[in-house]
Design brief:
The chain is mainly beta. It is built from four helices and 40 strands.
Length: about 725
C-alpha cells in the first residue's frame, strides 16, 4: 500500500513537473533561436558597447550605493566586479532604495519580492532570518565571508546597516566553499564614501516600535585619502506576541584608507546587542490549520507559550572586518578579506511538548529549553586577479586561498514545564532549572581550507565562458569525541552569448559542498552537504539601462539534507537525497524616471529520492509563488515630492514533509505612501494591509508557524 502511494505521488509529481517545465523546452528553442538571430545581426551591425551607468555622480561598482531598484553590477557570483548581464547564473540584487520603499524590518522581509526565494519560511521569528532558495536553506554571507555558523549562535544583521542584499541562486562552492545547492545570500555593508553626507531616521509603528538610526559618512582630510562612516541603531519595541520584546543596539564604525588609485583598505567594526524573546510558539495543528478539539475556537496568534521573566533570546556580538585591495599595475589586483567575530547567546524558552496535543479544555503540556551557546570564528580569503586582453579574447583569471576556523560551545538544559491554557493563560507556576540541570556540550571546531581558480573568458565581446575548480579540506572536530575529515573537488562551467539586442542566453553546471558545523541532538557530527545543478536561462537588458528581465529553469540534487527532528523541534536530522526542479521569472524595470516595477513568478517541484519520506515533497516549499511591487513618484495639486507603492505577494500551498498535511496558500497586500521635501523624507509603510491571519508552514512533527500580522510603521528621515 505504501509503495503504491509513493509511486502514485512520484508519477503525479513527474507529470506536474513535465507540465510546469514544458516551457523549458520552448525556452531552450527560444535561446537557440535568439543565438542564431543575434549571430546574424552581428554580421549586419557593428558592436555597440553599452553606456556607462552613473550613480550619484560616480560609476557604479559592485559594492557601492545604487540609486533606485536596478543594480547592474555584482561581485557575489564571480568575486570580480562583473555586470549582471554578463553573469551566466541567476542572481538578484535588492538595493537600499528598494528596502527603504518596502519598509523592511529584517533581512527575511527584504527577500519577499525575489524570484525563487521564500522569505519568512517559519513565520515571524525574532531569533533569526529564515528563508529558502530553490527549496534549500541558504548560507548567509556578509561582505563575501560567511556570517552564520550553526543555529541560534549569532545576531541577525540589521537592514539599515546594509548597502544591498545579493541572492545568488544555485551552487557557489567553487568560490565560497560554504554554500548549499540552492544558493547563498550575501549582505553588503555600508562603507565609507568620499562625499560628506548623513541621515537621521526616526521610526514609530505597530507594537510600540520605536527606533532611532544614524548614518554619517565622508572624508577626514582634504585629499580624501581617509574616509569614515558611522552607523548606529537603537530600538525599543514589542512584538505581535504578548510579553516578547524586540530591542536592539548597534554601533558600526568604519574607516577607508585610499592613499592613491592603487590601494584601498577598509576596516569595519560591529558591536551589536539584541534583547528579545521567542516569537515562535510552535502552535499545534489543531486550533490553527485544523479544527480545535471540543468545539474550541482557533488559538489566538498572540498567545505567549513561555513564562514572563524567563523567556529570552539575548545576543551580544562583536566583529572586526578588514577588506584590502592592491592593484600594482593594469593587469593584477590583489585582495585580502578577513573577519574575526565572537558572539554569546542566552536562549531560554518554553514550548509545547512534542508532538503538541491540545486538550479539549484548552490546556497543553509544555517543556523548557535553555541554551547558552558561544561562537568564535575567523575567516580569511586571499585573491589574485589578472585582467588579460589578447586580440579578440579578454580574460579575468581569479585564483584564491580561503580559510575559516569556527569554535562553538554550549551549556543547555531541558525538562518538563507543566501545562498552560492557551485560551486563558495563567503564568507563574514554573520553576526554572537549577545548576544541576545543565549539561555542557564538548567544544566543536570546524576548520576548512579551500584553493580555487576561475577563468572568465570573453570572445569578441559576445561569447562569455566561466570555468571554475576548487579543492576543499574540512575537519569537524568534537572535543573528546570523533573527528570527521572531508575533502571535495567542486566544479563550475557556464556559457553565455551576449547579443547586441540585449538578450543573453546561457547554460551552466555547478556543484556545492557544505561542511556542517556542530552536533545533532544526539552528539553526532553532521556530514557535509553535497549537491549539483544544471541551469538554462536567458537575461534581457533593455536599451538605456531601464531594467533587467530574466528567466531560468533548473534541476538540482542534494545529499545529506537536514530535516526537522520529529521528537525535538530544536534539533535537525540528516536524511538522504532530494531533487528540486523549477522555473523562475523575474523583472526589475524602471518604466519611466518616476515609475519602478518588480514582478516575479516561481514554480518549484521537490521530491525526496532517498531516505526518510522517500517519494514525498520537501517540507515548507510551495510549488507556486508570485509577487508584484510597483512604486511611483507623483505630484498633488502641483506639489512635487509624493510617492506611493503597492505590492501583492502570493505564496502557494506547502506540505509537511510527509504529504499528510497541507498548509494553505495565502495572498498578502503591502503599501507605502511617502513625501519628500527638501532634506526631509516621510513615509508610511503598511505590510499585510488586511491583517490576514496565516500560517507559513506546518511540519509533520505537529507544529505550525504564524505569519506576520499587519504592521504600520511611520518613518521620518533628515538628510544632510
Amino acid at each position: 500500500m505504501n509503495k503504491t502511494k509513493t509511486e502514485t505521488r512520484r508519477h503525479s509529481s513527474l507529470s506536474a513537473a513535465r507540465r510546469a517545465l514544458a516551457p523549458s523546452r520552448r525556452l531552450a528553442l527560444m535561446l537557440l533561436s535568439a543565438c542564431g538571430a543575434a549571430v546574424a545581426q552581428d554580421a549586419a551591425n557593428p558592436l555597440t558597447l553599452p553606456a556607462v551607468t552613473v550613480t550619484d555622480g560616480a560609476t557604479e561598482t559592485a559594492t557601492g550605493p545604487v540609486q533606485g531598484y536596478v543594480a547592474r553590477r555584482s561581485a557575489t557570483a564571480t568575486k570580480t566586479d562583473t555586470p549582471l548581464a554578463e553573469t551566466p547564473q541567476s542572481i538578484s540584487v535588492i538595493t537600499a532604495d528598494r528596502m527603504r520603499d518596502q519598509g523592511v524590518q529584517t533581512v527575511q522581509d527584504a527577500l519577499r519580492y525575489t524570484a525563487g526565494v521564500r522569505g519568512e519560511t517559519y513565520g515571524l521569528d525574532s531569533r533569526g532570518d529564515w528563508s529558502t532558495i530553490r527549496g534549500t536553506d541558504p548560507v548567509i554571507y556578509l561582505d563575501g565571508m560567511q556570517q552564520t555558523f550553526g543555529y541560534y549562535a549569532s545576531s541577525r544583521p540589521d537592514p539599515f546597516a546594509l548597502e544591498r542584499i545579493e541572492v545568488l541562486k544555485g551552487p557557489s562552492s567553487v568560490l565560497y566553499g560554504q554554500g548549499t545547492v540552492g544558493g547563498i545570500v550575501n549582505l553588503v555593508s555600508k562603507r565609507p564614501l568620499d562625499t560628506q553626507q548623513g541621515e537621521v531616521q526616526l521610526q514609530y509603528g505597530s507594537f510600540d516600535r520605536k527606533q532611532l538610526a544614524v548614518d554619517v559618512t565622508g572624508p577626514l582630510d582634504e585629499d580624501k585619502t581617509l574616509l569614515y562612516r558611522v552607523v548606529a541603531i537603537g530600538r525599543d519595541s514589542d512584538t505581535q506576541v504578548d510579553k516578547v520584546g524586540d530591542d536592539r543596539y548597534v554601533l558600526m564604525p568604519s574607516l577607508t584608507w585610499r592613499p592613491d588609485s592603487r590601494v584601498e583598505w577598509t576596516v569595519l567594526a560591529n558591536f551589536q546587542k539584541d534583547e528579545t524573546g521567542s516569537t515562535t510558539q510552535f502552535l499545534p495543528h489543531a486550533g490553527t490549520v485544523l479544527p480545535a478539539p471540543g468545539g474550541l475556537s482557533k488559538i489566538p496568534i498572540d498567545v505567549f507559550m513561555s513564562e514572563p521573566g524567563f523567556d529570552e533570546y539575548d545576543t551580544e556580538q562583536k566583529s572586526l572586518t578588514s577588506l584590502f585591495s592592491y592593484k600594482p599595475d593594469d593587469t593584477w589586483t590583489l585582495r585580502q578579506n578577513l573577519r574575526y567575530s565572537e558572539s554569546e547567546v542566552s536562549y531560554q524558552t518554553i514550548y509545547p511538548a512534542f508532538p503538541p496535543a491540545l486538550q479539549t479544555n484548552g490546556d497543553i503540556d509544555r517543556v523548557y529549553w535553555v541554551a547558552k551557546p558561544e561562537l568564535k570564528y575567523w575567516t580569511v580569503d586571499h585573491q589574485a586577479q589578472a585582467d588579460i586582453a589578447s586580440g579578440r579574447l579578454r580574460q579575468t583569471v581569479l585564483a584564491g586561498l580561503d580559510y575559516q576556523y569556527a569554535v562553538t560551545k554550549r551549556r543547555w538544559a531541558y525538562g518538563a514545564a507543566g501545562t498552560l491554557n492557551l485560551y486563558n493563560p495563567v503564568y507563574g507556576n514554573f520553576t526554572p532549572p537549577g545548576a544541576d540541570d545543565f549539561y555542557d556540550d564538548p567544544d566543536n571546531t570546524v576548520r576548512q581550507t579551500g584553493i580555487y581558480v576561475q577563468d572568465q573568458l570573453t570572445w569578441d565581446e559576445r561569447w562569455i565562458a566561466v570555468i571554475g575548480l576548487r579543492q576543499d579540506r574540512a575537519v569537524n572536530d568534537t572535543e573528546g569525541g570523533e573527528t570527521q575529515k572531508d575533502t571535495a573537488v567542486t566544479k563550475r562551467l557556464a556559457l553565455m552569448y551576449k547579443a547586441a539586442n540585449g538578450v543573453s542566453p546561457y547554460l551552466s553546471y555547478a556543484e556545492s559542498f557544505q561542511p556542517e558545523i556542530g552536533l545533532d541532538g544526539y552528539g553526532k557530527a553532521f556530514k557535509p552537504l553535497r549537491g549539483k545543478q544544471y541551469e538554462v536561462g536567458v537575461k534581457y537588458e533593455p536599451a538605456g539601462g531601464r531594467g533587467q528581465l530574466s528567466a531560468a529553469v533548473y534541476d538540482l540534487r542534494e545529499k545529506n539534507r537536514k530535516s526537522p527532528d520529529p521528537t525535538n523541534p530544536l534539533n535537525q536530522l540528516q536524511t538522504g537525497e532530494a531533487r528540486v526542479r523549477g522555473l523562475e521569472l523575474e523583472a526589475q524595470l524602471r518604466l519611466t524616471p518616476d515609475w519602478d516595477l518588480i514582478g516575479t513568478y516561481s514554480y518549484t517541484d521537490t521530491e525526496v529520492l532517498e531516505g526518510t519520506n522517500e517519494g514525498k515533497r520537501l517540507p515548507s516549499v510551495p510549488e507556486q509563488m508570485a509577487s508584484l511591487w510597483t512604486q511611483h513618484r507623483f505630484s498633488v495639486a502641483g506639489i512635487n515630492g509624493f510617492r506611493g507603492g503597492f505590492g501583492i505577494r502570493y505564496i502557494g500551498d506547502s506540505w509537511d514533509g510527509t504529504d499528510s498535511l497541507t498548509t494553505p496558500g495565502y495572498t498578502l497586500f503591502d503599501a507605502m505612501l511617502g513625501y519628500d521635501v527638501g532634506r526631509w523624507s516621510f513615509a508610511l509603510n503598511m505590510n499585510n494591509i488586511g491583517d490576514k491571519t496565516y500560517y507559513t508552514t506546518c511540519l509533520a512533527r505537529g507544529d505550525c508557524f504564524v505569519g506576520t500580522r499587519r504592521t504600520v510603521v511611520g518613518t521620518a528621515s533628515y538628510r544632510f
